[in-house]
Amino acid sequence: MTGRTEGSENTQADAHTTANAGAEPTAKQGAKSSAKSTVTQPQLGFFGMCRWAWTQLTTMRVALILLLVLALAAIPGSLLPQRIQDPGRVNTFLEANGAWGRFLDTIQMFDVYSSVWFSAIYLLLMISLVGCVVPRTKQHWKAMRSAPPKAPKRLTRMPGYASFTSAQADADSREDADETFLDAAEARLKKSGYRINRQADHVAAERGYLRETGNLVFHIALLMATLTMAIGSLFGYEGQRILVEGETFTNSLVSYDSFEPGSYYDADNLPDFRLRLDTFTSTFDDRAAGNQFGQPRSFDAKVTTTVDGQQDSHVLKVNEPVRVNGVGVYLTGNGYAPEVTVRDAQGKVVHSGPQVFIPDGGDPGYSSEGVIKVPDAAGSQMGFVGVFLPTAAQNEDGELVSSFAELRNPYLVMSGYTGDLGLDSGAPQSVYSLDADNMTEMTDESGNPLVIQLAEGETQQLPNGGSVTFDGVKKYIAVDISQDPTQALMLISAILILLGLGLSLFIPRRRVWVRIKDGNAEVAALARGEDPMVGRAVEDLVKDLRDRPNEDGSR
């Protein structure tokens, strides 16, 4: 028992040693294999990241995304008032919206098209277009100069394919017959506008290079339009002015309500002309039902321009500007200017004439807000804050509202203040707002805030002995006056954009091969992109080649 046990133990020890000895090289091999299979990711580094970013930026996909982002970024410019177009509405919006308005002003929502973020998108789009168009133009130029590719071995794999036996197969010389067949195929394809590459047993043809040409023309024209806009903003100018009926504008720097010259524009060289607003007519729909009731139908401003003593009459409309001495005059807004006469306690007229009231953009009834400042009143300066209602009516709550935008029942409601208007402090003030911090609100006999309510032609006495008279209403227009030396180039860019887009959308890119051997002909076609007519093109070509006349005139 003892000897048998020792032998057994020795045997087990030997086996254990043998197993360990066999396992050791296996573990080493696994470690080596694991070391070999470990993949070390390369580090791009700073320059590698720059190359990657440039590659992404100059792809057509990113260019289209930037174009979409630019369009989205322009939306706030159409939804919110812009300083360059209507600074008065911007000030009114800021006063009405408090902290929210100041936040929007901080992120340049009232100067969208000159903001940092809009300019950054604009610049990235230009860089992307340049980096995308230049390499593609080089590649397209090389492709246009190269011969169409030879026929592949198996034409049956093509989306358009047909085979038939040539009618000339029984001719005396089969080689001559095949050559004649290829001549006919070459002539037919050339007539259809294909570029030809003639081989021994087949004809390779290709057409549709104008598709890629149109694509490049579209993007080059888009880049040209982008650069044109930038150049126009550098060498042109844009200004705004409000004109009341009967008022004349002289094209000088001091006559503008706001003026934005380009970086390289000399404001001393403004073109010489005058513009007078004779009458303004606006019509609104009072027959439609629902949301269409009260919608504007026409805005017509009759103006007279004077250049070098020569007067001309024009009708200024929305999207129909008037050109005068190289300058475009655009109709951008309109409203009402109540004519108010204010007398002080001594009976002296201290204010008289039309005062521009700004319409509430969300009110189809053209309810308008305005301010009248009277700094020359005897005793104490006066100020009035009011609302003008073109067609005054009462709503269900008994509140005064304007039920229609036309002048059918004009009504003026104002509050009065006395004190210091702050005009002598030197700080700039908006003509459309009143700073009443240093003023006292007028009160009636019972001590309640004074409410001045006037129909056309009425007069109301003031607590200080003065009076306010509502004489009538005039209309006004807001015009945008701009000079852009690149308008002709912009027109060319727009035409090229449409032309390039049409070519890229409607011209198919197609390759055709015609092969013949011993009278057995094959015709195949391959389209680049989607082309539902590729099969039809093969059928028409087969029909023409099959029905072509023989040398003796037979078919």
- Structural class comes to alpha+beta
Low-confidence stretches: 1-25
Q: End-to-end span in angstroms?
A: 111 Å
Beta-strand content bin: 25-35%
How would a crystallographer describe the biggest sheet?
A: 7 strands, antiparallel
Write down how many β-strands occur, each being a DSSP E stretch of 2 or more residues. Answer: 24
Number of domain modules: 4
Helical fraction: 25-40%
Shape: elongated
Q: Which whole number gives the mean pLDDT?
A: 86
- Count, helices: 10
Radius of gyration equals 41 Å
List strands and helices in order, with pairings:
Layout: H1 2-37, H2 45-57, H3 60-73, H4 75-79, H5 87-106, H6 116-145, E1 160-165, H7 174-191, E2 195-198, E3 202-207, H8 209-235, E4 237-244, E5 248-250, E6 258-261, E7 274-284, E8 296-307, E9 310-317, E10 322-324, E11 327-343, E12 349-354, E13 358-359, E14 368-374, E15 381-389, E16 392-394, E17 400-402, E18 411-419, E19 439-441, E20 452-455, E21 459-461, E22 467-483, H9 487-506, E23 510-517, E24 520-527, H10 534-546
Antiparallel strand pairs: 1-24, 2-3, 3-23, 4-6, 4-22, 5-7, 7-8, 8-9, 10-11, 11-12, 11-22, 13-14, 14-15, 15-18, 16-17, 18-19, 18-20, 21-22, 23-24
Helix pairs in contact: 3-6, 6-8, 8-9
